[in-house]
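Worked problem 6 (solution included).
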Amino acid sequence: MAVKLVFLGKLADLAGVDERDVEAPLDWQGLLDELQGPIGDAVQQDRTRIALNGEVLADKSALHANSGDEVALLPPVSGG
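Solution. The predicted structure is:
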């Protein structure tokens, strides 16, 4: 099986897709290797958050996803 990446909001626009499967296991460096160009740059920004199976990670560099896991990439929240 694979890890499902889910791109939300502006990140889906940058990725060109809403979701994508990648090979498991997946850690932070593996995620960066998978995401090149503008989407990779956006994911590295401090305000972009990552959720693993619905729980937002306090430290996204601690990402470790296994087969069947879902990793959601959350854009910065804006508004007033």
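Discussion: The helical segments are 10-15, 28-34, 38-44.
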